[in-house]
Amino acid sequence: MPENKEMSRIQKKNAEKQNKGKKKNKKQKSPLWKKLLFGVLLLIVLAFLGGVGLFAYFASSAPEMTEKDLTDIVSKDLVDAKGEVFYTLGAEEREPVKTENIPQVLADAIVSVEDQRFYSHIGVDPIGITRAAVGYVTKGHIIGGGSTITQQLVKLSVFSTKEEDKNLERKAQEAWLALKLERQLSKQQILTLYINKVYMSENQYGMGTAADHYYGKDISELTLSEAALLAGMPKAPNAYNPRTNPEDATKRRNIVLQLMYENKKISKEEMEQAKAVSVQEGLIEKDDDETNDLVYDAYVSQVLDEIKEKTDLDPYTSNIKTIHTNLDKDAQEQVYDVLNSDEYNIFPNDEMQAAVSVIDVNSGQLKALGGGRKQDQLRALNRAKARAEVGSTVKPLATYAPAIEYLKMSTYEQVIDAPTTYKSGQKINNFDNSYEGQISMRRALVNSRNVPTYKINQQIDTSDIQEFLHNIGIQSLNGDASDTDFHESNAFNGALSMIDLSAAYASFANGGTYTAPYAVSKVVLQSGEEIDLAPQSHKAMSDYTAYMITDMLKDVANTGTTGRLVNIPGVPQAGKTGTPNYRSEDKRKYNIPKDAVPATAYVGYTTNYSVSVWAGYDKRFEKGHWLSNGDNTRQIPRKVYQAIMSHISQSVENNNWKMPKSVVPVKVEKGSMPAALPGPNTPSSRIVTELFVRDNQPSKTSTHYTKKLKAPSGLTASYNKEKDEVQIKWNKYTLSNSDKEVTYLLKVGNQSYTTKDRSYVVQNPAEGKLTISLAVKAQGQTSPSVSTSVNITSDEEKDSSEASSSNESEKESSEDSSSEASSNSSDEESSSEEEEKEESSSSSSNASSKEEQADEEASKKSEHKENTEENKEQDENNADEEE
Fold first, then answer.
1. Residue-range definition of the domain harbouring residue 152
2. What is the pTM for the complete model shown?
3. Which residue stretches does the UniProt record annotate as biased composition, category Acidic residues (predicted)?
4. Which of 76, 528, 700, 811 fits 805 for a cystine, CB–CB 3.0-4.6 Å?
């Protein structure tokens, strides 16, 4: 037992020794936080070294930057479709500024807004560079710029502004070249080069040139307000142009003044005084050369927008050499003259605005644009690209073409024009506030009837309508382009730009192919690289849809007031009018006349061109800023169209459209519903020829006019003993279809005769009783017969016999025929009044029944109430009033 205790003590001591050793070992290990800190520092060092290495790697491939790069402004030629230069960006004669002539107020303004540490850094802003690098790592692209004035100068001189070029490599090269430039030039030299390099809107480069262009003064004479404005313009030259965008220019100018005050370059009093000055104070008028540039301004604006949208190249500052456009100079000059000169005497005043788009239907190329009237500023609002209410011009796009494309409706398709409401219960109006009953699709479109259009539209799946619209480049028919929903009123009313409208109709003109409209075909860079900007074409609809729509729209362009206004001898054309309207409350509020509208539009096309025209006022509620029938201002778009289309059609061959094999012209009986072929008795006046999609034409023959013939009337016979002859007469038999022939079948005794006359003479008849019968053959039928008899005697007295029926049925037939053929009329003329009454009664009953059904449908109120207000507002803009 003691031995066990002793062993226990020994084990205890050994355990204590082991524990002490463990404690010593624990004290020797480093804390975890130190290890983490060390790891982080190591990563930072490695990242720094890696960054330095990457920077060095990128910088090693930086392009050379010469003095010419820093001082030259490379002009960009815009060439037309024939390859001839019509405009040059940067073509203005620059006035380079010398360092000693730069006023301190301008230098302070530029530094305050662009680079407040300009005089202290070495060419780069480390904070900005870090922000850009972090953005590249986390977002995959550069966030922010961090660009100093030196870096901006480098960018303007040797780099493009394409979005894909804004990467970490480009940023590193830009920074490296900025560092080099700072070692070679003084701050004042760098600032001077920047001042001479920047783009200042209206084709002006350099602030010295801009000072003379806008204010007519030397740069050294700029006031504080003027210097602040010019210093702020390079960020967005066109947006901050004091002539075209005075409000935005004022905001930008004031930001610069505020930064100058915060940077202690001006006092608060000086800031407030400068802010009180209008940005348009001191601006001078343009010279004649600039006025000539206005002819092409709308087109040039479209060119510049396309380049930015499709390439991210800045047309003003990038290394573009040549821009190849699709411009037709002759067409462009004609558009400008029609809109602006007094030669055509179309517009009532200088305030009315207009927009025009001319497209080659076979290529989608934009040939000419009219962005507005009486504009005196370059790069002003391009109304050809702006969305505008275009009324019923959307009907073929949103309703009739989809109905043919997806439902294979014919141009004869029957629809009831009767009181109708939206699903919300809101009433839909026609332009004349009346209804026509049963009409065809052709009449509904040509006469621009809203109710039938809506009814046809409701038969088409909305998804099909939207697909069709997307196929012709239309994402939205609403005033707000971001609203891509298809609303009920879009069946007959909507908003589009003139460019998009003319492009969509071009698809009808060329047989169903859509090409996105484009002004620029390609861009050539200074390096010789070519960038192709021509879009790909695609089949947007079947050829039968395009042809059938065109056939109906030819009726618009060839009849009525529109036909008179747009007529061009020898030029087959089609087109559609469109007229939005004021809301009722706006008419009351602004005392607008009943027939006044805010704008009108017309789009027409040939086998060569599609031309869309809009006319209206920017301030539509000002007194007199409306269009009406009384002064013919609602005819203006059609007059503009005619003046342009007639001119551009002179130099091309104008052909009519050829019917594709997928379309079949079919004669149908008018009023048949569904369509039916004419019967043998259908009057020619009731036969119409309409277009059907092949294999969808009607096969059933109408029986509406197939009625049994009634017996003839007025049959009489008398014997003239002196002449020894029997004289036979009867009444004229008249069919309801007067153009059908009647043949009389006469039987005298055992002899039969056919004649088209209404009398017959039998010579030397035999004695005894002579029986005579008469029937009619017409329309493939033979009528019941009537008969009479006469006694042939040798007595001296004249025998005669009144006509009598041979049997009771013949008497009934004779009585019936007297009603049909008016046998008792003194002039022996019969008529088809009874048939016409029956036809009228039948037609009236049929139409009445259909209208009652339509009324019953219209009276049912939908449970869907969410669109009530929307439909109410849009419906008041739907009246496309045809003159």
1. 67-74+89-282
2. 0.71
3. 826-838
4. 811
